[in-house]
Amino acid sequence: MKRRTFIQGLAALGVVGSLPLPLSRALAADIANPVSVDDLPKLKGELTLYLGRGEGGLYENVLQAIQKKNPDFKLGIRRGPTAALANTIVAEAKAGVRRADLFWAVDSGAIGLVTDAGLAQPIPGDLSAQLQPQFRYKEWAPVTGRIRTLPYNTSRLTKDQIPTSIMEIADSDLSIGWAPAYASFQSFVTAMRILEGDDKTAKWLKKIKKRAKTYAGELGVVMGVERGEVDIGFANHYYTLRLKSGKPDAKLDLAFTQNDAGCLVNASGVLALNDDPLATNFMRYLLSKEVQGYLASEAYEIPLVNGITQPEGLPSLANISPPKVDLTQLADLRPTIDLMRSSGVL
Amino acid sequence: MAIIYNYLLDFFAMKLLFKPAKTLGASLLLASAFMAQPVLANGPIGEHVNHLQANLKSYAEEVEWMVGKVDTMVSDYDTKGAKSVKTDDLIEYWESVKFHSAIETNFVPVYASIWQGLYGVKMAIDNKQPAEEVRKQQKAMNIALWQGLGAVKLAAKFQQKGLLDTVKATATKEMTQSATIDEIKHKLDRVVAKFAERLQDEATEIVHDTYLHLFEGVEGTLIEQDANLVEVLEKDFNVTLPLAIKNSKSVDEVRDVISDMQTKLDRAKVLIEKAEKARKDVF
């Protein structure tokens, strides 16, 4: 196992002792400026990318734009569910073949499957230095982030009525909406297992289950909160932002817990499977200020490089303190599913 | 039969009027109308579906055979009574013909109607309905079969011109958001087909997978355009349609729910295309 911890990047910067960092501090940390695509090397040659299904086709737009900007570059793309592609990459490696040069996954857990198998190439230091310090990994580059949030109904609650501890929410009298079958929710439970242990997580799940209304997906959760069916929900941040964009008078706002799985920042990510500089240069395009800005404004994803405007409607990140979790550990989903089943949640 | 064939021809010709067949757009349009599906409920598809033209004669013979077998059964029921027939044979007849997968891979709405007609005959006999009622169901089944043959003949023409996708085991195509809406509508047609086959669990699973893997990918964009429309479709996917299937309503009732959803999805497609056009460039 090649597990690294979340804090490796910070160790190099000598700020390990201050973890977990509020994002506001991280933003102030030593970080290289993002690069414009106009300053990046032209791509020439061919690569094959395995692409996990992305945000409603917007990743496809990015890939098309990169190819259009580089007429001498040909990108072969294989598309599929992220976890399935990760398993394919590992299986192909075991069979002694490598069909993919790059893997762009919507979920960092899937990245972990590939890095744990020792198949990813090291990321150049200058590329890694463009990322926020807490998102620096040796063998993969997070592309954009998403935060776990507590959407709440503003006609039923004020923000200060919501506990800032995810564990305390289980003991509150709030009614809750959740989507336990949803992959993002399961990654959040995995983070809770890592941070709090299986016993506490199982107790938390059982308590929440007693008062929770189940929805098929997290947009459904957010809409349920807005309709007043429940007081709060568990969901990624962008569902609320998008609903408010389409319905500006929605009775909805976001609350955050502190330093726990309730405000986990997960990320999509890219890794190279060979040491061809073309693959590395392709990754630079994904971290360019143009791509980061596009995904922030169009997909409401959180840019992970410096100086890019946050998605419209996302509250100031100054007081948000995500937990320290090696995102690649979120690949360990089987024990989470088992725990959710034994707790009667799935 | 000529009338039905002309109807189908007109149906696709009308679509082609709006998008020339030589364009990629038309290929996608045809792919959505005649979407090939790798996983079927009743065993392997068979390579024949990639060579429709060469198999048209045998498909036509199979339809004739099927129509004749059912007619014999209904006649026996009429003259000799219910004990003289085994209605389970109807299902076996249908599942034994190659035409079965040819129509399932090429025109799912008619495929559903064939199953509906087949079960219409079976249930009418099992419930000891008068022969007139059985004949009525038989007629509906026959119409669906001939309509299916017409659709396969038309599909064969498009396949000859290279406008029909080869049936593949994996989907690797880029899927725009508006194309995703077409795929969702097609999956909903399959829900009717599986429900008509009396495969409720499979129908429900398709609804669930379509919601999670396809609708979820477009609802983010859609909710920015029309939050109420998303709300209604969310309810359709998660409550109305699963309940209609679970409560074993009639095929027509399930089809009505789905037709209503498809109308909403048409509106969703217009909104999504508008959003796609308005979206800023990456660079």
Walk me through the topology.
The complex is a heterodimer of chains A (346) and B (283).
Chain A: H1 8-13, H2 23-28, E1 45-52, H3 58-69, E2 73-80, H4 82-94, E3 102-105, H5 108-116, H6 125-128, E4 141-153, H7 166-169, E5 176-178, H8 183-196, H9 198-211, E6 212-214, H10 218-227, E7 232-233, E8 235-236, H11 237-246, E9 252-255, E10 265-272, H12 277-286, H13 289-299, E11 302-303, H14 334-342
Parallel strand pairs in A: 1-2, 1-3, 5-6, 5-7
Antiparallel strand pairs in A: 3-10, 4-8, 4-9, 4-10, 4-11
Helix pairs in contact in A: 4-5, 8-9
Chain B: H1 2-18, H2 24-33, H3 52-80, H4 88-96, H5 99-104, H6 108-126, H7 131-160, H8 177-196, H9 200-225, H10 227-246, H11 251-278
Helix pairs in contact in B: 1-7, 2-8, 3-7, 6-7, 6-8, 8-9, 8-11, 9-10, 9-11, 10-11
What is the gist of this entry?
Chain A: Pfam families: SBP_bac_11. Chain A has 346 residues and is of the alpha/beta class. Chain A has helices at residues 8-13, 23-28, 58-69, 82-94, 108-116, 125-128, 166-169, 183-196, 198-211, 218-227, 237-246, 277-286, 289-299, 334-342, and strands spanning 45-52, 73-80, 102-105, 141-153, 176-178, 212-214, 232-233, 235-236, 252-255, 265-272, 302-303.
